[in-house]
Amino acid sequence: MAENEFLKGRGAQMNVHNRFFEHSHETRDDFLNYCAAEGDDWEDNKTVTIETFPKSIVNKVDSPDVGMGYSLNPYQGCEHGCIYCYARNSHEYWGFSAGKDFERKILVKKNAVELLEKKLRSRSWEAIPIILSGNTDCYQPIEKKFQITQNLLKTFLKFKHPTGIITKNSLILRDLDIIKELAADNLITVNLSITSLSEETRRIVEPRTATIKKRLQTLETLTNNNIPVRVMMAPIIPSINSHEILPLVKEIAERGAFGVGYTIVRLNGAIGQIFTDWIQKAMPDRAAKVLHQIESVHGGSLNDSRYGVRMKGEGEFANQVAQQFKIARGLYLKDREKPVLNCSLFEQQRDGQMKLF
């Protein structure tokens, strides 16, 4: 494919320079001309998995506005390709680009289950919910092959330890029986990401995720099985999905969600360059408007790193979004309570079996 051709089925349209590298790469015209003359593609668009064996797997989350204490990420990088994803920057720590590399070079943490079990057996560990995943989606497509998330859930069930899931993939229903067992002891909540009701929007903004129809069906299936589900409409992107707040909250309420959360898009680190390049190619007619509106909620910048402000933004547009969610919750989610996960069963199961004495 030509360098400037829109890459279908992927989010990022470019690789950006890794800030930790002294040298950068340039795709020269003479190289592209040579590839074209030879009939060769100048790059491979296939997804590559790379097996890794980290020393630890449970991460303490220090950010005060994230809403979780500990996270566990079985994969690094994400094939879903969501163009706005804040996790893209973390791929640079592994020596890759936050752009196309993030979607095509996926690190698989092969020893994740053993590391989790070791952590839960530690005498110093006290039960507190561990969330799958705080960074990249634990049910991205390669989970179907590697089944690491499935085995992590089995481990949480074995130890009667509270956990949570954040995903936008209907693959979660494969593990419905395990999740039902966890829910029976109030050991799990699911955060299902649904950013739009428009399949056209989903396809271009989140190219390799489950369809909107499948996500709504997933929500309904989970709640019909007494599994508590909160929907995340994250992020709100001005002039792309910002007009959908009330109809989306109405839809998810009718399908049993106990609550809804949101963030306003912020393009931190390399994501600003990646998103700007993408929207100028994907939505050239509204690119300038969207970028200016994003800047308007972050003090004139595409990003704001201040805790407590960065997720919700400031200014007129941010206030309008907040008011819409307030109205939507009052109309459709009134009196629905957030469950509190059970941390009392773990101590009896610390060794992986019920203590009798």
UniProtKB/TrEMBL annotation:
Keywords: Iron, Iron-sulfur, Metal-binding
Positions of the Elp3/MiaA/NifB-like radical SAM core domain: 68-296
CDD domains: Radical_SAM (cd01335)
Pfam families, sorted: Radical_SAM
Entry-linked NCBIfam families: rSAM_PA0069
Protein known as: PA0069 family radical SAM protein
Organism: Christiangramia antarctica
